[in-house]
Design brief:
The complex is a heterodimer.
Chain A (H helix, E strand, L loop, with lengths): L10 E3 L7 H14 L2 E8 L1 H4 L2 H9 L5 E9 L3 H10 L6 E6 L3 H12 L9 H15 L4 E4 L9 H12 L7 E6 L9 H18 L3 H8 L8 E4 H6 L2 E2 L4 H12 L5 E7 L17 H19 L6 H28 L6 H24 L6 E2 L2 H7 L3 H14 L11
Parallel strand pairs in A: 1-9, 2-3, 2-5, 3-4, 6-9
Antiparallel strand pairs in A: 5-7, 6-7, 8-10
Chain B lengths: L1 H52 L2 H8 L1 H7 L6 H23 L4 H44 L5 H23 L4 H26 L1 H22 L1
Chain lengths: 413, 230
């Protein structure tokens, strides 16, 4: 059980006392009559072969309040697509699968490209954006929830708690982010613990009071991939297609809505998913790539707020960050000790060193070209350029989902 | 024995002589076909390049031509689709010219009919393209006007107008193609008349209260006017 302390500029909804999934789901069923809820799932085909997706589907099959589920399947062949359709069949809500590698969706991407829209490379950002587009195109839902498909500790309480604040008609929240602890026999979530929080605090120390930094620091798990929002937000928000997705999305939420209408909710006592390798020597992959993208996204957002970056500021930032991160390691060492968790201080220090190098790389890239952070345009702009794009997207997905193939036995584990 | 051999050889010689006369025609047809296919390929290539140069795909996306293609489950680029249509049209024309080189009476008639039908097919295609664009434009204009006037069922109204216009355009195109004109005319009259009657009944029945209010308001205004004069 967590405390009930409210920190920062947004609302924090804690897990207090014994949870009651039945009550939450019953209320959500009522709310969904007024504000239908869609669930967007960006997934790789490989995730259907892993341990997470079977559990997620099993849980989703018991959910009654969802109006529709839009699964964006990436890196899957035509046969994989058909297998996934079979795999999702136990779910009672209407399930639509967007086949990212299908000829119709590829043509939709081609339409974006020839009209001057850079929707980025394949990945979670692009898939999430397309899922929002399809939900908007159908116009049947008022709320969109999104979570990853690699959560091995998934329970439907996570989804219920995520949707509740936005779906509740009297709470007036437009965006809700999930948070949780990432603990196994040790503390996980290195990028949040050792990069984002120390970096934000170091920037606050140098720049001083800044609305966006306060907003970002208010989130207990700024990099969590689980959130819920109203569909209007999906229409106006731009999304980064790289690893800066979570931070960039928060920046867009901050830009478009008052923090009073933003909340975070405790969605799980524990959470585990696919772990990324650090790859300290290679800035083009793993956590290093993620770190560079996140830093660039933060720098760009601050610059757009009017913060002036210089070589001197970045030099100070490196040192200030390092101090903040070292202090953080000490705090977490104590936290691990009292909870009987393993704590490799050397490994944590190595991660901080790698993150420091990544901040240096990000600042260098930013100084060379501050516009490098890629943002997928919002749907309002896309519609103004291609008025019929929603109709085309709807046709593409619906045609894909209409085709029936008999594949015999389903090979997905 | 010699007579018997003649009986066998004569038809063969006759066939051989006929084939000898026919062979140049066949060769001419093959040459026409090969040249036609090559020419069609070159024209397609040039057409696609020219269309790409003027951003035809982009224009097509904006005016709704691409959507029209997608509705027919055609998922290639508009330039590629147009290139393919022109290519196959040229192939058919080449085939017809090639067949006419065979100088066979039955085929000559067929070729003549084909070329006589071409202007009709062209007109029908123009009616379909211009009609679809016009239907899209009118439907969108109605949608915008209705939304701006605060009309609750704007989308339904716009879609209804688009459906009516599509029925009208299809009937016009089929009439142009002379495909069972009697049936098309009857079917069009029934469908179009049915839709209009259904709308009239729906509006009439649904609008009784609104019409009553309007008439009452009008009467009320007249009475008010009389009182003011007094």
């Amino acid at each position: 059980m967590s405390d009930f302390y409210q920190s920062g500029s947004i609302t924090t909804l804690h897990q207090l006392g014994k949870s009651s999934l039945e009550r939450l789901e019953a209320e959500l069923l009522g709310f969904s009559k007024v504000s239908p809820i869609a669930l967007a799932l960006p997934a790789l085909y490989s995730e259907f072969e892993g341990p997470a997706m079977p559990g997620i589907v099993q849980e989703l099959a018991k959910v009654k309040y969802l109006n529709e589920i839009v699964l964006v399947l990436d890196k899957g062949t035509e046969k994989d697509f058909q297998r996934v359709r079979e795999f999702m069949s136990p779910i009672s809500a209407e399930v639509k699968i967007i086949h990212n590698d299908g000829k119709r969706i590829l043509e939709i991407y081609e339409t974006f490209a020839r009209n001057g829209f850079n929707v980025g490379e394949r990945g979670k950002g692009r898939s999430a954006w397309l899922a929002y587009g399809y939900v908007l195109a159908r116009g049947k839902s008022d709320v969109i929830a999104l979570h990853d498909c690699d959560i091995v500790t998934y329970s439907r309480e996570l989804l219920a708690r995520l949707c509740y604040p936005v779906a509740h008609p009297n709470l007036d929240y437009v965006f809700c982010k999930g948070y949780y602890s990432r603990v196994s026999n040790k503390l996980n979530g290195r990028v949040t613990r050792l990069l984002v929080t120390p970096l934000v605090r170091a920037l606050q120390q140098i720049i001083g009071q800044n609305g966006f930094l306060t907003f970002l620091d208010s989130f207990r798990y700024a990099l969590s991939g689980e959130f819920c929002m109203i569909t209007d937000l999906a229409r106006v928000n731009r999304i980064p297609w790289d690893w800066g997705l979570e931070v960039g999305s928060l920046a867009e939420v901050y830009r478009n809505y008052s923090p009073r209408r933003i909340c975070q909710v405790d969605i799980a006592a524990n959470y585990d998913h696919k772990h990324q390798i650090l790859s300290a020597d290679n800035a083009a992959k793993g956590l290093m790539k993620m770190t560079v993208d996140i830093c660039k996204s933060i720098f760009r957002t601050l610059a757009s707020e009017g913060v002036v970056f210089s070589d001197g500021l970045f030099k100070s930032l490196l040192v200030t960050y390092l101090r903040q991160a070292e202090d953080t390691i000490i705090k977490y060492e104590a936290d691990a000790a009292i909870n009987g968790l393993k704590f490799d201080r050397h490994e944590e220090a190595m991660a901080v060193e790698a993150f420091t190098r990544a901040i240096g790389m990000a600042s260098q890239t930013f100084m060379e070209n501050p516009m490098t952070t890629p943002l997928i345009p919002n749907w309002n702009r896309v519609i103004s350029a291609i008025p019929d794009i929603f109709e085309m997207l709807r046709m593409a997905v619906d045609e894909d989902n209409c085709t029936t193939h008999h594949l015999g036995s389903v090979n997905v584990k | 024995m010699s007579d018997f051999l003649d009986l066998i050889l004569e038809p063969l010689q006759e066939v051989f002589l006929k084939f000898k006369v026919f062979l140049p025609n066949l060769l001419a047809m093959l040459v026409i076909m090969v040249a036609g296919i090559l020419l069609a390929k070159v024209i397609r290539l040039m057409l696609v390049k020219s269309l790409n140069a003027i951003n035809f795909d982009n224009w097509s996306d904006r005016v709704g031509m691409t959507t029209l293609m997608r509705k027919g489950d055609l998922w290639s680029k508009p330039t590629a689709a147009l290139g393919a249509v022109i290519f196959w049209l040229l192939i058919i024309v080449t085939l017809m010219i090639g067949l006419s080189a065979l100088r066979m009476h039955a085929i000559d008639n067929l070729v003549e009919q084909f070329f006589a039908y071409l202007p009709r097919a062209f007109s029908a295609a123009v009616i379909l393209i211009v009609g679809s664009l016009l239907a899209g434009f009118i439907s969108r204009a109605i949608l915008i006007a209705a939304v701006n006037s605060g009309y609750h069922y704007s989308k339904l109204l716009a879609e209804a107008v688009r459906t009516l216009l599509t029925v009208l355009i299809l009937a016009m195109a089929m009439e142009q193609l002379q495909i069972a004109p009697g049936i098309v005319l009857a079917a069009f009259s029934i469908i179009f008349g049915g839709i209009v009657t259904a709308l009239a009944i729906a509006f009439g029945v649904g609008g009784i209260d609104a019409a009553k209010r309007m008439i009452e308001r009008e009467n009320g205004a007249e009475k008010k006017d009389e009182i003011e004069h007094l």
